[in-house]
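Note to self: keep these together.
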Amino acid sequence: PPKPNSQTYCLVATTIANSLKQNSELALQLFQEAMDQGVTADGRFLNALLRCFGDDINGALAAWKGGIGAAAAKFEPKPNDNKQQIINRGANLLAAYNGLMHVCGRAIRPDVALRLAYAMQKTAGIEPTETTLNCYFAGKRLAL
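Structure:
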């Protein structure tokens, strides 16, 4: 059988996240399994993984600091990569940060979302986008 890839893990994480139950432990197990299998930490996969935390923003932030954030940054293109990859620089991290914004919305924590927006710019050099804001609002709609 073919080896699972980032898209395979993304589909599993999305299914878990759409259950609308907090599944942070399962998400962490899935992340660890993917890393053990050498799967690339694609931003879409990490976004879906972070959404599994439901409204547990503290757990999601701990997971980010515990390895998810580093995995997202590791997948970013380097200056010696091809031109198209350089144009997309930051897209992987942005997708992962958008997952954190969704969790902020679920937790109804605009204060944490604002701190994340500042951290995106200060530590990663990434501008929050309209999509970033919409991820927060989408999470908030689920909470209400």
